[in-house]
Amino acid sequence: MIRALLPHPLLALGLFATWLLLSGSISAGDVLLALVAALAIPQVMRGLEPDRSGVRSPGAVLRLASYFAVDVVRSNYAVATIILGRRKRQRVSGFIHVPLDLGNRYGLAVLAIIVTSTPGTLWVQYDRPSGRLLLHVLDLVEEQDWIDLIKGRYERLLLEIFP
Amino acid sequence: MTPSDLPLWAAWTIVAVVVFGSLLALTGSVGLVVLKRFYERVHAPTLGATLGMASIVVASAMFWSMTEGRLALQDLLIGIFLTVTTPVTMILLARAAVYRDRVEGDDDVPPE
């Protein structure tokens, strides 16, 4: 019963919150419209047959979000100094391969957003059969450091969140 | 409260945050000119799309919250939507460039 009404509870919750934020008020009418949207739109999603997301471990979600925020600020600074030329030593940019254990689609999507949104790293290509990810790094000092960063800092948490 | 009634400290805080974000976006745009290769250039606009965008969005939320006297959070949605959609463009561009370079036999790009 509850499954028929709410096939994707997180999606419904997200739509509800987004609708209320967009309308900018919590009057009865807006809440009602938000409820209708939150209940109706996930029914359309059924037709697309998405994988069930099954987010686990809210603690890991919070830790991931805080790592992301810190890394975005830090790498904004790093890339800005590179662009403005306040860096004396020779800089090398290049491609690296990262072997991923993460296979969950949603986990990979989140990792793609994190990696691409952090200035200095760019998600180029993911090969599903081998699980190998091709990245481009703007300031490539030590290849292994980047692999450890992606695997140790992000992938470990994503494996907890999307088991 | 109308915008002209904003206390001075609030106005200056909002201005400082907006200018900080705009300078980051400008730095990203400068990077498009300064950096030489395509794969280096793609990194530059991310400054404006992440911390630059976040600063401007936060300043906007602060401004509307103070002038309207209630928590105005809808601007934060801009941040969420931009964060989710910008990487799609970046990854498509990178894939296209990698495909082109592989077809042309560029040695810098690793083979498939």
UniProtKB/TrEMBL annotation, chain A:
A molecular function (GO) term: monoatomic cation transmembrane transporter activity
Location, primary (coarse class): membrane
GO cellular component: plasma membrane
Coiled-coil boundaries: none
Pfam families in the record: MNHE
Protein keywords: Cell membrane, Membrane, Transmembrane, Transmembrane helix
UniProt subcellular location: Cell membrane
Statement: the UniProt record of this protein carries the keyword Transmembrane helix: yes
Topology with respect to the bilayer: Multi-pass membrane protein
This protein's record includes keyword Oxidoreductase: no
Family: Belongs to the CPA3 antiporters (TC 2.A.63) subunit E family.
Protein name: Multicomponent K+:H+ antiporter subunit E
Native organism: Brevundimonas bullata
From TrEMBL, chain B:
UniProt keyword terms in alphabetical order: Membrane, Transmembrane, Transmembrane helix
Record organism: Brevundimonas bullata
Transmembrane segments: 6-35, 47-64, 76-94
Highest taxon of the lineage: Bacteria
Official protein name in the record: Multicomponent K+:H+ antiporter subunit G
GO molecular function, one term: sodium:proton antiporter activity
Listed Pfam families: PhaG_MnhG_YufB (PF03334)
InterPro entries: PhaG_MnhG_YufB
